[in-house]
Amino acid sequence: MDPAQALANRLRPAVTDERVLHAIATMPRELFVSAPELRRAYENVALPIDCDQTISQPLVVARMLALLELTGTDRVLDVGTGSGYHAALLAMLAGEVWTIERHRRLSEQAQRAIAELGIDNVHFVCGDGADGLAEQAPFDAINVAAAVGEQLPAELERQMALGGRLVAPVGDTDQRLVRVVRTRAGYRTQRLEPVRFVPLVRGDACP
Length: 207
Hints:
Blueprint: H1 3-11, H2 18-26, E1 47-49, E2 53-55, H3 58-68, E3 75-79, H4 85-93, E4 96-101, H5 104-116, E5 122-126, E6 139-144, H6 154-158, E7 160-170, E8 176-183, E9 186-194
Parallel strand pairs: 3-4, 3-6, 4-5, 6-7
Antiparallel strand pairs: 1-2, 7-8, 8-9
């Protein structure tokens, strides 16, 4: 069996969104892992990449994608490009994706991997992900692939469209996935399962 399909099958007990599972099953994860980790590309674990960052555990990626409830036409902001794996999957499930990474080296590597796949609806930005991308807001969905600390950046919440969904790891010692939905009455927040992400790196983009 194709290793990507086998990975999707292993995730099925915890993920019911068939569109997400199909995206996982057709995405070559080996394009997004570092050379020393190639043999582990389809293990359900986080793996180290350049700049002391990680490519997230596939189960957590799949859960975050499912929680965003993407429809195929959404405008999505992806904070923390990293390897580009998450952005590539978002591109399969949404209309247009803007992905922000502070480490220029990672952003360029991710851009090459995604271009190799022929994906053309991802826009790459180097900068501070906590600031979002106000010039492209509002977003139907915001994915944050790094731990934001105890408080979600207010700027990201402001850039959500009405009905928009945001998913992020929140917390320091007790880090949890948090899902926020913007409603006419305000922001509705759910704290979900424990996770472990590297911290969101703040500040201007690296040269």
